[in-house]
Amino acid sequence: MPSANGHSNGVSSHGIPTSCASCPEPIKYSGSLDSYEYFEITPIIGREYPKVRVTEVLNAPNAEQQIRDFAVIISERGVVFFRDQDDLNIADQKKFCDLVGKYSGRPEENGLHVHPIYRDPGNLTLPDGTTDENIYVINSEAQKKIYATMKRRAPTEPKDLSREWHSDSTFETAPSDFSFLKMESTPPHGGDTLWCSGYEIYDRISPSFRSYLETLTATCAQPVFKTAAEVGNYAMMEPRGSPLNVGDEFAPSHPVVRTNRITGWKSIFAGVGLHVTKINDVYNFEDQMIREYMLRLITRNHDCIARMKWTRNACAIWNNSCVWHAATPDTHLVDGVRTGVRASSIGEVPYIDPKSTGRREALGIPLI
Ligand SMILES: [Fe+2]
């Protein structure tokens, strides 16, 4: 039974929503992108359209159909790369990200995410010196300053970059579905971004353990925003892309396994990541064991990973409900500035449709 906010009232015996009222059935690809040249990044994850111009898609007579088809392809492949988007301005970047979510069954009251601490005076501005509440700016010069501070600390263990893996905005009740990042400038090398398929990680777990994971939720707490707002004496931004994303608690519980609303395939979601703080209702050692196992699957299965070597004005758009991503913090080793601008759409409250299956089962690909 749909509720007024576009979400389902159906909840499993484990307290996990079982459907998405705004997108009750998976969406099928219509073929509107067939004339575009592309290549797959790996057999499992990622696709690049080397010649597509996002501005041309936005202005096409069948723009809605094309954008919906892009939503399907991004959700099937996890992440899509575009190159040389020199003419894509911030307004069009926001528009494409918003429409990919809107045309693919996002709850209709939702929009682009607003970062909770947008008012923080330490936030970076856009390259032209302005700010936009829907755009998150990343910049390697800021990273270099952080590294300069860290150098003074004596390391107690070898570097561990596995903590970089995350899914955007999981600290929100309604997290991000699509994130769209454009790299405005980049050094000749360094700063690669990696994406890992949550579908494939799900498929590599034994069926009995998968069934158990489907009963679990995880707390995704991010207390730093509240502290930052208190120290800076400014108000938290709200609502943040959904009427459900309000307040300053930032500690929702999300299912460890979720169904992607567009493909209908199951993916590991809140079992691992920067914002995941605890698997609920298990002992501490079990929590640690489950999260370490998820992370081990990611770091020992690099055939589940797509890697972007950035070029100037390249873009990546991904579906956070079925991939995690990780930055490579090595730009302090090279000359040149890496500046990226990211918009994120806010999707539905994560759910598991009991009728959904893994990607391999849905496509008839044998499990390995
Ligand atoms: Fe991210």
Strand content: 15-25%
List the total number of helices.
9
Identify the strand order in the major beta sheet.
1-2-3-13-5-15-4
**Can you write the helix and strand succession as a string?**
EEHHEHEHEEHHEHEEEEHEEEEH
* The CATH top-level class label: Alpha Beta
Structure classification: alpha+beta
Let me know the number of strands.
Answer: 15
List the topology elements:
Layout: E1 39-40, E2 47-49, H1 54-59, H2 63-77, E3 79-82, H3 90-102, E4 136-139, H4 140-150, E5 176-185, E6 193-197, H5 198-203, H6 207-213, E7 217-219, H7 224-232, E8 253-255, E9 257-259, E10 266-268, E11 278-279, H8 284-299, E12 305-308, E13 315-319, E14 323-327, E15 339-346, H9 359-363
Parallel strand pairs: 2-3
Antiparallel strand pairs: 1-2, 3-13, 4-15, 5-13, 5-15, 6-12, 6-14, 7-8, 7-11, 9-10
Helix pairs in contact: 2-3
This protein binds fe (ii) ion (FE2).
Would you mind describing this structure in some detail?
It holds the Pfam family TauD. Belongs to the TfdA dioxygenase family. This protein is of the alpha+beta class. It has a single domain, classed as 4-Layer Sandwich (Double-stranded beta-helix). Helices cover 24% and strands 17% of the residues. The chain contains nine helices and 15 strands. The chain has helices at 54-59, 63-77, 90-102, 140-150, 198-203, 207-213, 224-232, 284-299, 359-363, and strands at 39-40, 47-49, 79-82, 136-139, 176-185, 193-197, 217-219, 253-255, 257-259, 266-268, 278-279, 305-308, 315-319, 323-327, 339-346. The protein has a seven-stranded mixed beta sheet. Strands 12-6-14 form a three-stranded antiparallel beta sheet. Strand 9 (257-259) and strand 10 form a beta hairpin. Helix 2 (63-77) crosses helix 3 (90-102). It is globular and about 50 Å long. The protein starts with 38 loop residues before the first strand and ends in a 5-residue tail after the last helix. Mean pLDDT is 93; it is low at 1-8. It binds fe (ii) ion. Fe (ii) ion binds next to loops.
